[in-house]
Amino acid sequence: MFERALMIFVIFLVGCAAHDIEIKGEKVIFSLKYDNQTYFHYSLDGFVPHKMAKNGSRYYFELKKTYGFKYFFTDGAGVIKIECPLVEFDDFGNYNCIFEM
User: Fold this and answer.
1) Percentage of the chain with pLDDT > 70?
2) Lowest CB count within 10 Å: 28, 50, 67, 96, which one?
3) 12-30: b (≥16 Cβ within 10 Å) or e
4) pTM score, two decimals?
5) How far is residue 76's CA from residue 96's CA, in Å, rounded to a whole number?
């Protein structure tokens, strides 16, 4: 019983941090469904935090289309774990997602 409840809780948590990537013309739009203010960090500018705009229950960040970089999201508590098709592990026990065109 406890294991089933734990599994449902874990699935719920992963669902809260669902992210999408959309390419529109010359822009790439990253969106994240999350409850708290989020920040987008990417390797092209040294992982500087960029405050994401909010629309409903999703946060958005857009940038000029480029061929590849690493990225991750944070909130006030630290790195937000999301599922990515390509990842690179860092020296802090986390990982960066890899975006490629």
Assistant:
1) 83
2) 67
3) eeeeebebeeeeeeeebeb
4) 0.78
5) 18
79 burial type by CB count under 10 A (0-12 exposed, 13-18 middle, 19+ buried):
middle
Strand-pair partners of 31: 20, 60
The rounded distance, in Å, linking the Cα atoms of 8 and 61 is: 30
Looking at residue 48, the DSSP 8-state letter turns out to be -
CA atoms within 13 Å, Cβ hemisphere of 95 = 12
Can you list the pairs that 26-31 forms with residues at least 24 positions away whose Cβ atoms lie under 8 Å?
26/64, 26/65, 27/62, 27/63, 27/64, 27/65, 28/62, 28/63, 28/64, 28/65, 28/66, 28/99, 29/60, 29/61, 29/62, 30/60, 30/61, 30/62, 30/71, 31/58, 31/59, 31/60, 31/61
Block residue for tokens 């944070």: 74
